[in-house]
Model the fold of this input.
Amino acid sequence: MVFASKTYGIATPADKFSQAIKKRPVLYFGLPFVLTVVVGSFALSELTATKYNVHENRTKTMSKEEGLKLSKNRRKLNLQEEYWRLQAQDIDDDWEIKRVGSDPNPGVTTSPTMATSEASTTSS
Done:
């Protein structure tokens, strides 16, 4: 026989794997999904760590004045001088107390539609 050296029915590792997948579909669908979620979680954690590290390095290199965008030749704050400066400002003191007229019906609120309907009923 010419084909006697070929044996049929001996399973190769690929055949065993395909049979296992046919018996358990979770290996075909669930395992790749779970692996994708786990690997994605590690990848995203590395990306966010990199983002925060870059931000931290950027803020550490700035001085306090640079962060607040202040000029370096500004005048120093003295509370007593600020007090006297504010006292010297011209404040508008020519005001007088005026009484505000009170509502004729205290506690009664009317909507514009109620006011017009009341006006029409009182006029007739």
Q: What stands out?
A: The chain has a mean pLDDT of 77. Residues 26-61 form the longest helix (36 residues). DSSP finds five helices and no strands in the chain. The two ends are 124 Å apart (CA to CA).
